[in-house]
Structures are given as C-alpha cells and as structure tokens.
Design goal:
By secondary structure, the chain is of the alpha/beta class. It has a single domain, classed as 3-Layer(aba) Sandwich (Rossmann fold), CATH 3.40.50.720. 45% of the residues lie in helices and 13% in strands. Strands 3-2-1-4-5-6-7 form a 7-stranded parallel beta sheet, with helices on both faces. Helix 2 (35-41) links the parallel strand 2 (27-30) and strand 3 (50-52). The two termini are 28 Å apart.
C-alpha cells in the first residue's frame, strides 16, 4: 500500500483528499493544528490506516513526527502540502498590511512546506515519489487585497519549480484546485454567499487522475483535468 502525508486534513480539501485516498487503499499520515477537530474529522476512519498526528506545521518537531510516522507505515510515496493560512479577514491592501501577520503567512505557506519537503526528500527519492503543494490562482493573478496570501503562494510555486529542476527523478506538482466551498474561502469573502462554489469532494476525480497519469512536474489546474483539457 502506498503511503502519503497530507497536512491540514481536519476539513476542506485536506479532509476530502484523505477520504478519497483512504478509499483508494492508501495508508495516510495526516495533521491539523486542532487535535479535537482532527479527531472528530477522522472518527470514521480506520486508525491503522489513517494516522493522526496533530500539531502545527511551523513546528520543526512536528514535521519530524509526520515523516517518522510515515516511515513506520513503510515509507513515504506522496507528500501533500495542503495546510495554509489566509491572513487577515477581510484582507487588507499591501499599503496597510501588518508585517508581523505577513511573516506568519509566509511561515505557514512557504517555510513550513519547504521544511517538510526537506525532511521527506530522502524517502521520496528512494521510492520515486511525488510532492503536491496546493496553490491558488492568486499566485499568478493580481487581485487587489490578495498581496499577502498571493505572494506567499507565488513564492512556494517558484520554490516548487526550482525543486522540480533539482529533483528530476521525482514528480513535483503545484496544484491549483480552484475556488471551493471551504472555510478559508469563506474567510476570504466575509459575509458573502459562497454556496455557488463546489465542495472539495468534487475535485477528487481530477486528483486521482493526476496521481494515475503522473504527468511531468509542473503547475496543474485540477479544473483542466476535470474537463480533459490537459495541463
């Protein structure tokens, strides 16, 4: 059975991916900052197949624990860097963006994923595995108010692009899932009705296609895989 680490798995896309990969026979190590919320989200899963390691991805010891847990399951085949934070809600323009909060946004969305990648690389190399880092169209489009989150996602996209060049034996994908009906998306639009956005489960077929087809490293829009338009 292949083994994956999925961060930010107590809700939203992370939980949807956990459910889908568990159904497909994967063994999983998953995390979230809230231990209680993570335990509740995983209540129906087999604890022998889905191992919960609550903690904060910005904590180096927690990242060590995630990789160690994957090793106990047999070794890591897939790392999904899904955990992230939006920053202030509503999002401020860059002219007034609080710099201490911006540091937190970069720490969670850029530094922590890279730290986890560094720890996972030896196992991924040995198994010719794959890395998925969840990104956003805000990384490539200039939306007013999205300067903090968008620039952090742009940074992790560029880091992924360089990593793909440095690790040609691995698959390194930075994956844009599109607008989904998640708590973070609601935080981005406080007070707005986002019921027209699809739930996270709707992108599972595209994610399965990504893993099954294993295209070359690069930027992937799941909407393209859903429509068959390619990458």
């Amino acid at each position: 059975m292949p083994v994956a680490i999925i961060t930010g798995a107590s809700r939203g896309l992370g939980l949807a991916l956990t459910a889908g990969l568990a159904q497909d026979g994967w063994r999983l190590v998953v995390d979230a900052r809230g231990a209680g919320e993570l335990a509740a989200a995983l209540a129906e899963f087999d604890p022998g197949r889905v191992v919960a390691v609550p903690g904060d991805v910005t904590d180096a010891a927690h990242r060590d624990a995630l990789v160690a847990a994957a090793g106990r399951l047999g070794g890591i085949d897939l790392l999904v860097n899904n955990a992230g934070i939006l920053g202030p809600s509503p999002q401020p323009p860059l002219a007034g963006y609080p710099l201490d909060v911006l540091r937190d946004v970069y720490e969670v969305n850029v530094v922590a994923p890279l730290g986890l990648i560094q720890l996972a690389l030896p196992g991924l190399r040995a198994r010719r595995g794959a890395i998925v880092t969840v990104t956003s169209d805000a990384a490539v489009e200039a939306y007013p108010g999205w300067g903090g989150y968008g620039s952090a996602k742009a940074a992790i996209e560029q880091a992924s692009r360089v990593l793909a060049a440095e690790e040609p034996e691995l698959r390194v994908w930075w994956v844009d899932p599109g607008d989904l009906r998640t708590r973070m998306h609601q935080e981005a639009f406080p007070g707005a009705d986002i019921s027209d956005r699809p739930p996270p489960e709707t992108v599972l077929p595209a994610f399965r296609r990504l893993l099954g087809d294993a295209p070359p490293s690069g930027r992937v829009r799941l909407a393209d895989l859903l429509t068959g338009a390619g990458r």
